[in-house]
Amino acid sequence: QVQLVESGGGLVQPGGSLRLSCATGGFAGFDLDNYVVGWFRQVPGKEREGVTCISTSDDDTYYVDSVKGRFTISTNNAKNTVYLRMNNLKPEDTAVYYCAARPRVTTVQAMCDDVRAHRFFNSWGQGTQVTVSS
């Protein structure tokens, strides 16, 4: 199973920015190009929401409408870390953010653009809190 470790959360004022990191790895022969990595978020009492996904093999990406133009998902050259750059943060972005991975089976859009998408991701990090408040 893929090992994922998030970092970079914190408290930020509305309009501010944060960058989350997701370090990946876990077993000999691991190749992130064979996976789709997603960032999800969850607030108490609500189901986990897909925010953005990426396939490092072709940089195919998906963004939920509420973050388009504000959030950017990317990877480093070594393809072992996935980043989530969040700009113009809003109070409604407050949540615990998780990165997750699953083997790629089809397009990133098809794998992530579904309210049930999180149920099919089988590797998860521990989560990092993002709080947007003045």
Account of the protein in words:
The chain is mainly beta and 134 residues long. The protein has one helix at residues 108-112; strands at 3-7, 10-12, 18-25, 35-42, 49-55, 60-63, 71-75, 81-86, 95-103, 123-124, 128-132. Strand 5 and strand 6 form a beta hairpin. The N and C termini lie far apart (39 Å). The model has no long low-confidence stretch (mean pLDDT 94).
Give short descriptive properties of this protein.
11 strands, 134 residues, mainly beta, four-stranded antiparallel beta sheet, globular, 1 helix
Number of helical stretches of at least 4 residues: 1
Low-confidence stretches: none
SSE string, helices as H and strands as E: EEEEEEEEEHEE
Q: Please tell me what the overall shape is.
A: globular
- In whole angstroms, the N-to-C terminal distance is 39 Å
Helix content: under 10%
Summarize the structure.
4% of the residues lie in helices and 46% in strands.
Q: Which SSEs are present, and which pair or pack?
A:
Layout: E1 3-7, E2 10-12, E3 18-25, E4 35-42, E5 49-55, E6 60-63, E7 71-75, E8 81-86, E9 95-103, H1 108-112, E10 123-124, E11 128-132
